[in-house]
Amino acid sequence: MITQSQQAQPAHPVFPVEVGTSPHPQVFGLRRAAERLARKLGPRRIWHVNSTPAGGGVAELLWSSIARQQSLGLPVGWLIADAEPEFFQLTKRIHHGLHNRCAAEFTAEDARLYRDVTARSAKQLLEYVRPGDVVLLHDPQTAGIAPHLLDAGVKVVWRSHIGTTERGAAVAAAWNFLRPYVEVIPTCVFTIAGFAPAYLSPAQVTAVTPSIDPEAPKNRDLSPQQCRELLRRAGLTGAPDEAVGYAVQDQPLPADAPVVTQVSRWDPLKDMTGVLRSFAEHVPTGHLLLAGPDPADIPDDPEGAGIFAEVCRMRESLPPDVRRRVHLCVLTLADQTTNALVINAIQRSSTIIVQKSLEEGFGLTVTEAMWKSRPIVATSVGGLTAQLVDGSSGLLVDPTDSLAFASSVNSLLADETRAARLGAAAHDRCRDRFLVDRELGDYLNLYRTALDG
């Protein structure tokens, strides 16, 4: 059973997340490698640190990966470095900058806030972490912690799950802001090596693509009956279960209608408004479903509520005959297992999965759809270009070309044979490249490298 620690916490603490072991069998070679690593570790531990236990791809990856690592007998823990809203507003700007989407300058006050918060988090982390332990820090929220841990004799790896190969002014400003912290880290991990800043040496850069767990609630097989019941509980086809979520719609989602779906956070880079606009203007058939988490459940994403409200306003302004074909679904994260099962059901019940991101480090929901053999239309940005082969395992379009996006959707709605062929190829590509055992092997290599450093 996977549960977050429920004890009362002081304001903005570092606190642990309790993760149970995975019940699923491990690849024999991984178990042998883990046994060798455990002997090398001795009394030392491995820790993962990020800013939230729920919401977004990083937290989801960690639930599954840490459970599997623990089931291999490795002493792996998970710590959350919480912070005040002002800090997360700053790190959201850094996030957008690393995607070349934020032109604002970073001020001396920004630098002070980042330095002070991450120094405080480092001090709190050292109540758990000991010299010689291996700590894997995730994303910009944690990079500033690294120098303090290194000074304390901790082995540090930093993993950035975001980025772009573009080299604009916003990217340069964001990487320069992080430079005092990132450039001292011996090993920095990126989804694509080309995401790394120029000031890192090749020896510091490692590429690891994220993965999914095919046995996890979000990806395991569901029967048509289970899918129907989960859609009902989400409010899409009947009265909602408030513990699951709710739908914004004029009428229930028809059981026999083609459904075009995007699942993502309510984030400007996911371009939910662009999906809605393209569908409303250029896709005359089928229904659109935009599904995402309740913004109130994601404290490190301060923009979510505003983006969701914007999507609601845009939907409300549509002509009635178009608006009735547009459905919004908001899912609570209070019960992560139920949340995952509902998303699983939504993806399996969809005719086409889309991901119209303006930038994307790696589209975890795209990988989930690949595993479920869904035909996919996505944008040719960031990690999506490593996930899908255009015309073979999916369709990739320019993120700024709304008409091309809609044309790709229309072509798949009109050609079920081609859609099925793309979906089958996507499943095979996911099986070969993006499943959790491969990433577990990558983590074992990272831990060994850190211990040898």
UniProtKB/TrEMBL annotation:
It holds the Pfam family Glycos_transf_1. InterPro entries: Glyco_trans_1, Trehalose_Metab_GTase, TreT_GT1. Residues 345-427 form the Glycosyl transferase family domain. The keyword Transferase applies. Keywords: Carbohydrate metabolism, Glucose metabolism, Glycosyltransferase, Transferase. One of its GO terms (molecular function) is glycosyltransferase activity. GO terms for biological process: glucose metabolic process. Residues 48-196 form the Trehalose synthase N-terminal domain. Belongs to the glycosyltransferase group 1 family. Glycosyltransferase 4 subfamily. Homodimer. This is Trehalose synthase. It comes from Lentzea jiangxiensis.
